[in-house]
Amino acid sequence: MADNNQKPPCEVCRLVRMYLLIAVPMILILYLQPEFSSLKGIALTDLFATFIGLMFVATVLWKAYLEYWKPKRDAARKNRT
Question: Is the entire prediction scored with pTM above 0.85?
Fold first, then answer.
């Protein structure tokens, strides 16, 4: 039975888990160098750069929403009641 009063895992344990889940498979793929025929005509560098650009725009829009639009909307709702 699980104890409800358990402490959250330490930061080092979380880092080790993330390393095992992300870095080890990446290193394994780099070592094995598999060939994917479906990716032959795609420039992965351009694809990754586009992805990073889209994530940057999404992050800026999200922060703008949290910093500007949401407080104004919440203040307007508070004044209506």
Answer: no
